Amino acid sequence: MCIPRSVLISGASIAGPALAYWLARRGFDVTVVERAGALRSGGYPVDLRGPAIDVVARMGLLPQLRAAHVDSRRMTFVGADGAPIGVITPEDMTGGVSGHDVEVPRGSLTTLLHELTRNDAAIRYRFGESIAALDDTGDGVEIRFATGTRGRFDVVVGADGIHSSTRAQVFGDEAQFDRYLGSRFNVFSLPNTDGLSHEAFVHSEPGRTAALYAIGDSDTLFAFLSFADERRFPAQLDAEEQLRRTTDAFAGGGWKVPQLLEAMRRSDDLYFDTVAQVHVPRWSSGRVVLVGDAAHAPSFLSGQGTSLAMIGAYVLAGELATHADPTDAFAAYERLTRPFVEANQARAASGGSRLLPRTPAELEARNQALFAMQRSGKPDARGEESRRVHTSLQLPVYEVLR
Ligand SMILES: Cc1cc2nc3c(=O)[nH]c(=O)nc-3n(C[C@H](O)[C@H](O)[C@H](O)COP(=O)(O)OP(=O)(O)OC[C@H]3O[C@@H](n4cnc5c(N)ncnc54)[C@H](O)[C@@H]3O)c2cc1C
């Protein structure tokens, strides 16, 4: 058997273009289909930490990412009257490493990855396209695309996010892989009328958290509203129902909550979902494999989704290039990255009470932790443990052809 050469990737966000880059450098012929008609550039800032920094450095992207780094300097936790309860650095909260990690608007990263790969002769992007049906024949995968064309590829990769339809088509219904963490969230932008700069404000009441995030000196702020919701199903609400539940959950909320609810209703870029993880027992089936959030979304509570996607893409490409049989490559990719992924998912699942305290006792414990970090000027044991987990993977080195 010879090494597979043609790869179809579904999804052009983070994992998809990163994988396309590494596959093209190792001699593969890559097609990327993206359901949206154009690159989806929106979103809150995302973090790159630990070995993901090595991945982007090996891609030559580190200088641009450092230039785009939003450099958040303060997280101020406020009470219902807006008075500060505690001020810490974002790194103290997340276990990030100042000066090493980068945090960039998600759209800056997707744009950089697309620019890096769009003119590569070995990579074809097809926007407004998706997989309608696939048939793994054992020695290849027959594809019928949504626009009616057909194709045959040696390997198919689902890089189509937390609600991956590649995963649904090959591995089964989303509900069996979705681990709901008990809350829903909304993210949207609004004008920065107060001149906030390089900082975040967070206001939590039991079961509901509101935050405002100033990305550098931008004249736009990101707002975040998350609330506990025991009603797990339906997982994906329509916008009207999401707005209704959010408004109910935040009724009577202090700080700037009334203004944020109003801004959310007016917003034209609302992004919302459940706070959930994806746990798939095996990331591949035959010649189809999953990468990024499709395989193992850790939830935004971890801040590790983008790092895991970049690392997974790098390792998957490296293993595909060094195994004649793709199923051996998939097994090696999973063996190398799954323990790291699971350790990061476990941190997030156990850490929700920090960002989204659900009870008065959790809120009090969160505040005590804040006071301690503010006094010491460093992360507490939880933050230190997160830092250890974020960096607990030794990135393999693979030969690159070009
Ligand atoms: C619009 C958007 C906004 C986001 N905002 C944030 C944010 O604010 N903060 C944060 O931490 N994370 C955010 N994320 C998630 C973050 O990008 C991921 O957690 C992480 O970077 C892993 O990336 P991924 O490439 O695996 O998945 P994703 O970034 O989710 O990308 C999946 C891609 O697949 C495409 N797609 C979906 N279905 C199909 C299909 N059937 N066929 C073809 N293409 C398909 C999607 O349009 C998307 O481009 C956002 C994702 C999206 C798509």
Can you give me a brief rundown of this structure?
By secondary structure, this protein is an alpha/beta fold.
| CATH 2nd-level architecture | 3-Layer(bba) Sandwich
Q: So what's the oligomer here?
A: single chain
Rg on CA atoms, Å: 21 Å
Shape: globular
Mean pLDDT over all positions: 94
Count of separate DSSP helical elements? 13
Instruction: Flag low-confidence runs.
Output: none
User: What would the CATH topology be?
Assistant: FAD/NAD(P)-binding domain
Which range best describes the helical content: under 10%, 10-25%, 25-40%, 40-55%, 55-70% or over 70%? 25-40%
Q: Return the CATH class.
A: Alpha Beta
End-to-end Cα distance:
23 Å
Spatial strand arrangement across the major sheet: 5-4-13-14-15-12-16
User: Structural class from helices and strands?
Assistant: alpha/beta
Q: What count of structural domains?
A: 1
DSSP, total strands: 18
> Going by CATH, what is the homologous superfamily?
FAD/NAD(P)-binding domain
Query: What does the main sheet amount to?
Result: 7 strands, mixed
